[in-house]
Task: structure prediction
Amino acid sequence: MAPPSAPSSDTHLVERLRALGPFLRERALRTEQERRVPDEVVAAVTEAGLYRMNVPRRYGGYQTPPHTQVDAIAEIAAACGSTAFATMIQAGCAFIAALFPDEAQDEIFTSPDIRVGGTLIPDATAVATGDGYVVNGTSGFATGCRHADWHLLTARVESGDGPPEVLWTAVPMAELEILDDWYATGLAGSGSNSVVARDVFVPAHRVVPVGPLLGGEFPSKANGDDPFYRMPVLLMFCAWTAPNALGLARGALADFTGRIHRRGITYTFHQRQNEATVTHLQMAEAALKLSSAELLTRDFVARIEAGEPYSEQERARIRAQSGYVARLGKEVVDLVASASGASSLHQDVARAARGA
Result:
């Protein structure tokens, strides 16, 4: 497979992913049934260049602006929510990996299309040795782990004198065991299995304390002064998670709009659902909720892109807006689902909300 060429403009990445929509949609049901993103979908998204969004340019990455990342992930989510969630996690973890010491980055980014996964809950434990840490434990919600090359495993260093120190440890996926335990009713195709570390040695240059990193202190010298990597990790997660809600809502509303011209309303005289006044009101409310979510997303993403400094009030507002976008997206899906009738329960009909 030929490597993706760098987009001549940010819109080209979005256009590539938009063109993949029918391909992803056709495989959305299979993605859910197999509880993982199919190999050919991962290959197609890789070829489109999505995993390069947060990879440093010196390794062939794009360092794509957050507003374009939002548009890109939303295009995937409109076709398959599980695929969007898995790709979002891996694209986001590449950003975190770019904050690690430069020596670690040289090991991780051997290709601009490298896939980096991660877990956020510190269920694993790390014990310091002379030149690194030995990590043990089982960590859940390792989204997309079956297709990842590296994993940012969160581990805690226990201390008898206070709360444990929390670390991000960069571990090759080949050194971790994957448990086949992802049986879920939502995001079923994201492949968020648990991973197990058994006496995994992680050298010191592949370990970063989580607290300082979230506070804007990270060891990379090459990226330390780059405005792209000065954007706070927690705020970037807001930018990465919002488009999942936007895309799912757009997909659900688009499918609903198409179906109301082909089906009636049972036990009424309406031969076509679009003939009913209540349908117009339902569509209008859903569309306004979606528009509100899009406007909120543009607002807080623009603030992230504006750069430092970020006041505490601004950080709180961005996180609140991101959460409210997710709520609005859910309300759109709930609204059109309640208006879609019993036939929408069939799996081949409910593709737009696949993974929701």
Remarks:
- The chain is about 45% helix and 15% strand.
- The mean pLDDT is 91.
